[in-house]
Amino acid sequence: MRLGSFALPRRRGAQLRTVDHPSPNRGLRRDGARPDIVVLHYTAMQSTADALDRLTDPVAEVSAHYLVSEQGTVFALVPEDLRAWHAGAGVWAGVSDINSRSIGIELANSGSAPYPNPQMTALETLLASILHRHPVPPARVIAHSDMAPARKSDPGPRFDWRRLALAGLSVWPDLTPPSSLPDGGVPGAFRAALTTFGYGSAVPDDLLLRAFRLRFRPWADSPLDATDVALAWNLARRFPVDQSASQA
After folding, report:
1. 44 and 120 fall within a common domain
2. pLDDT for the residue 110
3. Residue 39 belongs to a domain
4. How far, in Å, CA of 104 to CA of 124, rounded?
5. What is the pTM of this model?
6. Per-residue pLDDT averaged across 178-185, rounded?
7. Could you say which of 61, 80, 106, 124 is catalytic?
8. What DSSP assignment string belongs to 151-164?
9. Is 104 inside a domain boundary?
């Protein structure tokens, strides 16, 4: 389907059903910023139609660049060269104006349901095209809960981050214990690792653990332990924040 100004290149062999559905909730990216982060969300609404209504309602003052339905249809809402209003207050890898530096993708999901395969397949195709067009490394494809742990939990514990990582579209840790820990013991080591990976340095300990586990260990319900530290340090060692790309 033709999108006009929203046209998306396709992955070889992939079929992407796209619909042009512009939102008025948009603006210019500030200070000449270009997208180098992708933020994934869930809509937490009853239907795709409800989400479309809200994301295009000028009174609501919220939007995203794309909305992906459960059936795999991609609704193009805001052109990628413009600033969508999806992230709100938060920090990732030293960046505080996330909206100016990111592309936002909403996934139609209540927040507690599994993500259907057609939706995940469409997301993979969309992400591959975005990462092809923009300098977004897989480590900068993040959850809304990563950048705003105090406010957000999306895309939630049912989202398959490991699947995206296996497709080269995000990252996943290996369970390799660090050879040594910095001063501060387990809590200090955990915080140091996740700050190196990109989480905000001012996030309280309990919210930092919650955000990390939502994405990388959603089945765990114990206090912070050595496995959390090992996973966090594996991420920090393999995907440290690029300081040159982290000017807020």
Report:
1. yes
2. 93
3. yes
4. 14
5. 0.92
6. 59
7. 106
8. T--TT-TTS-HHHH
9. yes
CATH of the domain at 102: 3.40.80.10
Q: How confident is the model at residue 6 (pLDDT cuts 50, 70, 90)?
A: very low
Q: Which of 139, 166, 193 is the last residue of a domain?
A: 166
The two three-digit tokens of residue 167, written as one number: 């497709």
DSSP single-letter state for residue 95: B
Query: For residue 178, what pLDDT band results from cuts at 50, 70 and 90?
Result: low
Classify the C-alpha dihedral 156-162-167-169 as positive or negative. positive
Q: Are residues 201 and 100 in the same domain?
A: no
Give me the pLDDT at residue 175, please. 80
Does the annotation count 106 as an active-site position? Answer: yes
Q: Is the residue at 200 inside a domain?
A: yes
Q: How far is CA 111 from CA 31, 92, 114, in A?
A: 34, 22, 9
Range of the domain at 204: 185-245
Residue with tokens 């209504």: 53
> What's the domain count of the chain?
2
Distance between CA atoms of 191 and 196, rounded to whole angstroms? 9
Terminal Cα distance for the chain, rounded: 37
Find the radius of gyration of the CA atoms of the chain: 18
Taking only the tens place, the pLDDT of each residue in 125-173 is 999 999 999 999 999 999 999 999 999 999 999 999 999 999 999 999 9
